[in-house]
Design a protein that fits this description.
Helices cover 45% and strands 9% of the residues. α1 links the parallel β1 (4-7) and β2. The strands form 5 sheets. Strands 3-4-7 form a 3-stranded antiparallel β-sheet. α6 (199-209) packs across α7 and α16 (403-414) packs antiparallel against α17 (421-435). It is built from 20 helices and 11 strands. By secondary structure, the chain is mostly helical. The longest helix has 16 residues, at 17-32. The protein is elongated and about 110 Å long. It has 4 domains: 1-71 and 246-329, HUPs (Rossmann fold, 3-Layer(aba) Sandwich), CATH 3.40.50.620; 87-191, Glutamyl-tRNA Synthetase, domain 3 (Alpha-Beta Complex); 332-384, Orthogonal Bundle (Helicase, Ruva Protein, domain 3); 391-482, Arc Repressor Mutant, subunit A.
Length: 483
C-alpha cells in the first residue's frame, strides 16, 4: 500500500501552530514512507470565507519547508483540491445514501429544533441528538408528503441515518482501539439547507476519492471519527487508518488559545529562525529518543513514526522555543546574522553600518542573545554612541580618584601596537601588576567607559570590534565628564 496523507485546513485567515504541527507530521510521515502529501482546502463553510487565506496558508507551509505533492496549484490526479469546487460531487454521494436508505430528508425549522432540544434536555437522558422518530423527516412523513414538500421548495437538510445500537470500533494508531456505541452518535447533517455539504460528508468523500491511506489530524476531531466510520460503512468504502494528535496546551495546561499569546505561524515567522521553529514544533508531542533535541528536517523525516507520538497534550512553551532559537542562532554564518541585524536596524530606523562590522558585532554577542533582533537592546553601544552610563554600575566602580590610574592605562591601550584582544589583555595585566591593583579594578571602569553597561561580551574582544579610534574617543569622553 503506498502511503497517501493529506493536510485539510479550513481557510480561516491564518495558520494556527496546531495546524502547522498537523501538516508537519503528515509531511514527515509521507516522506518517511515514500508516500504522497495532499493539500486540500476545506472551505465548505462559506460564511467563514477569508480572502487570500489559501495563498497565505500555502506560503506558510512552504516557509516551514513542507512540500506538497498534490493540491491547488500543485497538480495531481484527484483534483480539484478545493472543496467549494467539488460541490456537485457531494450532492451526488448524498443522493446515493438517500437511495440506499442510509440517509434521509429532514424538514424541521429552527424553532422545531429548539423545542426538541428543550424537550430532550429536560428528559432524563439530557442529550441533544436529533430525535429522528418524533421530528418532521422522510422517516416519519408519508412518501408523497415528502415529495410535495421538496417540490414546493421547503427548506430541508439531508441527515445520515445512524444504525441503531451498533458498536463502532476503529483503531487509532496513537490511541489504540476506540469503541463507541452508535446510540451516542448524532444523525449528522450531511447537506445543509443551502445545499452545501457539511465538513463530515465532504471530508469522507474526499478522503475516499483522493485515496487517502492515513488520516492524521488533531485530537479535536476524534469525536467526529465515529461519524466518519459510519459514513465509510454506509458507502461500502474501506476506511483509512486514523491517528489523532495530542492537543497543544498553554503552560497552565489549558487548551492553547490566542488569549495567552500568539498562535499564528505568521507571527512566529516574524520572530523565529525557521529551522528552530520547525524543530520545536516537530517535538510537540513526539520525540524519537531520550535527550536529543536538535534535529534538521532530514533527520526528522528519517526518524518519524506515529507510534512514538504521545497521547497526552503537549505544552507549547515559548521559553523553550526561544532556547531553540538560541541553538540555531549559533549555527548561522556571520553573513546570515549580519543581514538579519541590518534588517533590524532598518526596522528601528537606526543608521546603516558596514556589513563586515555587523558580522563582527554578531559574532561577538551571539552567545548572549536568543535573537539577532535583541542585539540593539543588548549591545546598543556597538551600534551607536553611548547615550547613558548605568547609574548603579557607575556608582559602584567609579570615583574621581581612579582618574590617574585609568588615564595612564588609556594612554598605553591607545598606543598598543595592535588593537587586538591578546596584546591589550597582556598589556593590561602587566599594567595591573606594575601598579599592584587587581585586574577587575581597571576592567570595570574600562567597561563603563566603553559600553556604559554592566554586562556584555569580553572587554577586550568588544574593544577590538569597536576599534582603536572609537574606543579612544569613548575613554577620553568619559574622563572629560567624570574625571
Ligand atoms: N477542515 C478540518 C480542519 O480545519 C480538517 C480536519 C481533518 O483533518 O479531518 O482542521
Amino acid at each position: 500500500m503506498s502511503v497517501k496523507v493529506r493536510f485539510a485546513p479550513s481557510p480561516t485567515g491564518y495558520l494556527h501552530v496546531g495546524g502547522l504541527r498537523t501538516a508537519l507530521y503528515n509531511y514527515l510521515f509521507a516522506r518517511h514512507n515514500g508516500g504522497k502529501m495532499v493539500l486540500r482546502i476545506e472551505d465548505t463553510d462559506r460564511t467563514r470565507f477569508v480572502e487570500h487565506a489559501q495563498e497565505n496558508l500555502i506560503k506558510m507551509l512552504q516557509w516551514a519547508g513542507i512540500e506538497i505533492d498534490e493540491g491547488p496549484g500543485f497538480g495531481g490526479d484527484c483534483g480539484p483540491y478545493v472543496q467549494s469546487e467539488r460541490f456537485d460531487l457531494y450532492t451526488k454521494y448524498a443522493n446515493e445514501l438517500l437511495d440506499a436508505g442510509k440517509a434521509y430528508y429532514a424538514f424541521d425549522t429552527a424553532e422545531e429544533l429548539e423545542e426538541m432540544r428543550t424537550r430532550l434536555q429536560s428528559g432524563t437522558k439530557g442529550d441533544y441528538r436529533y430525535d429522528r422518530k418524533n421530528m418532521r423527516n422522510s422517516l416519519t412523513l408519508a412518501a408523497d408528503e415528502v415529495e410535495k414538500l421538496i417540490a414546493d421548495g421547503t427548506p430541508h437538510v439531508i441527515r445520515m441515518l445512524v444504525p441503531e445500537n451498533e458498536n463502532i470500533i476503529f483503531h487509532d494508531l496513537i490511541r489504540g482501539e476506540v469503541k463507541i456505541n452508535s446510540q451516542e452518535v448524532d444523525d449528522q447533517i450531511l447537506i445543509k439547507s443551502d445545499g452545501f455539504p457539511t465538513y463530515h460528508l465532504a471530508n469522507v468523500v474526499d478522503d475516499h476519492l483522493m485515496k487517502i491511506t492515513h488520516v492524521i489530524r488533531g485530537e479535536e476531531w476524534l469525536p467526529s471519527t465515529p461519524k466518519h466510520c459510519i459514513l465509510y460503512r454506509a458507502f461500502g468504502w474501506e476506511e483509512p487508518l486514523f491517528a489523532h494528535l495530542p492537543l497543544l496546551l498553554n503552560k497552565d495546561k489549558t487548551k492553547l488559545s490566542k488569549r495567552q499569546g500568539s498562535v499564528a505561524v505568521e507571527d512566529f515567522k516574524l520572530k523565529y529562525n525557521r529551522d528552530a521553529f520547525v524543530n520545536f514544533v516537530a517535538l510537540l508531542g513526539w520525540n524519537p529518543s531520550g535527550d536529543r533535541e536538535i534535529y534538521d528536517m532530514n533527520e526528522l523525516i528519517e526518524l518519524f513514526n506515529l507510534e512514538k507520538v504521545n497521547k497526552a497534550g503537549a505544552v507549547f512553551d515559548t521559553q523553550k522555543l526561544d532556547w531553540y532559537n538560541f541553538q540555531y542562532l549559533q549555527k548561522l554564518t556571520p553573513k546570515e546574522m549580519a543581514s538579519e541585524l541590518a534588517d533590524e536596524l532598518k526596522k528601528r530606523e537606526m543608521p546603516e553600518m558596514p556589513e563586515e562590522y555587523l558580522e563582527k558585532v554578531c559574532v561577538l554577542v551571539k552567545e548572549r542573545v536568543n535573537f539577532i533582533a535583541d542585539i540593539p537592546d543588548y549591545a546598543p553601544y556597538m551600534l551607536g554612541d553611548i547615550t547613558e552610563y548605568e547609574e548603579k554600575y557607575l556608582a559602584k566602580h567609579w570615583t574621581k580618584e581612579k582618574t590617574p590610574l585609568m588615564k595612564e592605562l588609556i594612554a598605553r591601550l591607545e598606543n598598543s601596537p595592535e588593537f587586538n584582544y591578546e596584546p591589550m589583555h597582556e598589556l593590561t595585566k602587566a599594567y595591573c601588576e606594575e601598579k599592584e591593583v587587581k585586574l577587575k579594578e581597571v576592567i570595570h571602569p574600562l567597561r563603563l567607559m566603553i559600553t556604559g553597561k554592566s554586562i556584555g561580551a569580553g572587554m577586550f574582544e568588544t574593544m577590538e570590534v569597536l576599534g582603536r579610534e572609537e574606543c579612544s574617543k569613548r575613554m577620553k569622553n568619559f574622563i572629560e565628564i567624570y574625571g
